[in-house]
Amino acid sequence: MPERVGLAALNISCQRGSKVLFEDLSFALAPGEGLLVTGPNGAGKTSLLRQIAGLLPLAAGLLSLEGPRPDVELPELCHYVGHLNGIKTIFTVRENLAFWADFLGDNGSPLSPALAAFGLTPLADFPAGLLSAGQKRKLTLSRLFAAPRPIWLLDEPQVSLDAPSLKLLDDAIKNHLDAGGIAVVASHTALKTKFAHKIALGGKRKT
Amino acid sequence: MKAALALLARDVRLAWREGGAIGTALGFYLVVIVITPLGLGPDLNLLARIAPGMLWLALLLAALLSADRIFHNDYEDGALDVLTTGPLPLPLVAAIKSLAHWLTTGVPLALLVPLLGLLLNLPLAASPLLVLAMLVGTPAVSFIAAIGASLTLGLRRSGLLLALLVLPFYVPVLIFGVATASVAITGPASPWPPLLMLCALSLAAIVLAPIAAAAALRTAMR
Q1: Which chain B residues are within 8 Å of A102, Cβ to Cβ?
Q2: Domain that holds residue B87
Q3: What is residue B171's three-state secondary structure?
Q4: Chain A residues within 8 A of B83 when measuring between CB atoms
Q5: Predicted complex ipTM
Q6: Is the pLDDT of residue B72 over 60?
Q7: What is the per-residue pLDDT across A128-184, written as a single tens digit (0 to 9) for each?
Q8: Chain A partners of B85 at a C-beta cutoff of 8 Å?
Q9: How far is residue A163's CA from residue A51's CA, in Å, rounded to a whole number?
């Protein structure tokens, strides 16, 4: 059960080099609401997610967090799943997950649900370097379950997943939202989950 | 605390299992020390006099060989992004990764000195002092290397640039490190002043370098 937090953006802008990717973007997400970010390549979907995760500074505007613990910073409540998997190839699947559980979470939750979430239990003691691209992706997504955090930032999470895994991912996002979590998903392809909010980036392009 | 220990254990285990990292540094150290007497000739007095300096120089270069490993792999595979969203502030992440580099490079290299000292006719009396100086001084080596490693993230062939950036900052460590051991060979002076200076250098590096490294990491991740 993730803690219930609300996330709001007020007039945020993103600038990469001399190019303004988006300006005056605002949204407000209550607990249990999802945000789907769409847009053509280079529209700033990844940049928006990285801004929320605190990896990229805001060019202007404000990100505000409403939660039960005011001393916790926004990035600490976020799971950021980007294009890169962040997997250590010489560690086994279990060791990879165990590290993220210890590092990101603090409550020592058991690993088995995280391993089972995307069906990686049979591969638990397999070196991660020998996994296929789709399996690596599933290992990355399993991180979402290794340490419970209320805000999921998923950047093209479906890449290289097969149909059954896509359904697992869809269900995972839906369950997370139903439990009061927040998900911000950048995606080209449709997910079955109903998102309360949608943003299409790249409408007014400025150079 | 748990997160800090998990990160330290992971980095040490990665360095150990990748093998190449520790092995390359130790192998390089060994080879440089073995070929030095071949280049200088069999003058035992000369070798004994320059032994502390040669051992320190070889140690600095060997440590630099593995320095880009501190952040590079995590940057390449995206793990650094996730480490940033962890409960630890980024300077602390940088400090723990530097500490792991020290444990897997500085400590084994320093402990190898009594053996390699024999090849350079290092007086046995000077050996413990030199090991002590290296154990005390190598934290500065690892932590300063972390600044260079974070500044050169994302550059191709960053190794040489890293050495250019970092080696000048090793000059004080080198001077006081050699001075500590030379005392045992050349004179009756006390080894404590240079040893304490080494301690000061290491402590300053441990406190200040992670802040600089974290700032460079932030820039690299943009």
Answers
A1: 2-3, 5-6
A2: 2-221
A3: helix
A4: 103
A5: 0.88
A6: yes
A7: 999 999 999 999 999 999 888 999 999 999 888 999 999 999 999 999 999 999 999
A8: 53-55, 75-76, 78-80, 104
A9: 30
| Partners of A37 in the β-ladder | A186, A199
CA gap A171, B126 in Å, rounded: 67
How far is A133 from A69, CA to CA, in rounded Å?
A: 38
Mean of the per-residue pLDDT values of chain B: 90
Q: Domain ranges for chain A, please list them.
A: 6-200
Burial class (CB in 10 A: 0-12, 13-18, 19+), B116: buried
User: In chain A, whose CA is at the least distance from the CA of B82?
Assistant: A80
Q: Looking at the partner chain, which of A54, A84, A108 has a beta carbon nearest the beta carbon of B84? A: A54
Backbone angles phi, psi at B150, to 5 degrees: -75, -30
CATH code of domain A6-200: 3.40.50.300
Q: CA–CA separation, B168 vs B118, rounded Å?
A: 29
Residue type (1 letter), A196: A
- Would you report the helix, strand and coil content of chain B in percent, each value rounded to 5? 85, 0, 15
Q: How far apart are the first and last CA of chain B?
A: 28
Distance CA B23, CA B33 (A): 15
Question: Given an 8 Å threshold on Cβ–Cβ distance, is A103 in contact with B6?
Answer: yes
Which pTM value belongs to this model? 0.91
pLDDT of residue B164 exceeding 50, the answer is yes
- Of the candidates A50, A80, A91, the beta carbon closest to that of B82 is on A80
3-state secondary structure of A182: strand
pLDDT tens-place string over residues B171-217? 999 999 998 888 877 767 788 889 999 999 999 999 999 999 999 99
In the beta sheet, which residues pair with residue B67? none
Secondary structure letter of residue B106 according to DSSP:
I
The whole-number pLDDT of residue A206 equals 42
The DSSP result for A13-79, as a single string, is EEEETTEEEEEEEEEEE-TT-EEEEE-STTSSHHHHHHHHTTSS--SEEEEEEE-S-TTS-GGGGEE
Chain A residues with CB-CB distance to B69 below 8 A: none
Closest chain B C-alpha to A122 CA, distance in angstroms: 23
Tell me A127's DSSP state.
Answer: B
